[in-house]
Amino acid sequence: RAFECDVKLSADGLPFLLHDATLDRTTPQRGVAGERPWAELSRLDAGGWHGRSYAGEPIPSLEAIAAFVRANDFRLNIELKPTPGQELETGRVVGREVLRLWAGEAVLPLFSSFRPEALQGARETAPVVPRALLVDTLWDGWFEMAASLGCVAVVANYGLMNAELMQRLHAAGLRALVYTVNDPAPAQWLRGIDIDGIITDAV
Question: What is the pTM of this model?
Answer without folding.
Answer: 0.96
